[in-house]
Amino acid sequence: MWHSGLFWWIGAGVLIVLELMHGTFYLLMVALGFIAAAIAHLAGLDLSLQLGIAAAVALAAVLLLRKSRFGRKTRNRAEAAHNPDVNLDIGSTLTVSAWHDGHARTNYRGASWDVELAPGEREDANLYEITALRGNCLVVVASRHAGARA
Q1: Helix %, strand %, coil % of the chain (to 5)
Q2: Which domain-ending residue is among 67, 102, 117?
């Protein structure tokens, strides 16, 4: 099988299937190394050169992937808590009737929620805008429309 170069093609196929099940791009980069080695075999290069090419291409591809936006984690949990693309409630408004040291309980979307006032915000607005979700707690600021209603 080493002499026919079939090993490289089968290996690349297996790595691509594993990649589809795993969900990262790293196995795909190693599969690129296998494909490069298969091409080197077709070019008539020796097995040791094929192995070297497979390793070099896979390593280069993995390093390039790590430097790309696909290889980096661009958002952490703290950013997700404030991201309206992740939490569709961010930007919604709700009313809070009574505060107790910056914390309250209110009905929102048919359920009772814990609400926390963001630092520096006033407790007399009555209408608040959700800026973040921290677990099952809504973090709110006084709504811009609260002044018009007060």
Answers
A1: 45, 20, 35
A2: 67
**Are 130 and 92 within 8 A, CB to CB?**
yes
- For helices 26-42 and 6-22, angle between their N-to-C axes, nearest 10 degrees: 170
Express each pLDDT in 66-89 by its tens digit: 888 766 655 555 577 777 777 788
pLDDT digits (tens, 9 = 90+) for 94-139: 988 888 888 999 888 888 899 999 888 888 887 899 998 888 899 9
- Please tell me whether residues 84 and 63 are part of one structural domain: no
> How many Å apart are CA 100 and CA 104, to the nearest integer?
6
Contact 132, 81 (CB under 8 A): yes
Residues in a beta bridge with 82: none
pTM: 0.49
Q: How many domains does the chain have?
A: 2
Q: What is the CATH number of the domain that holds 106?
A: 2.40.50.140
Q: Edge-to-edge strands of the sheet including 103-108?
A: 93-95, 127-134, 137-142, 111-117, 103-108
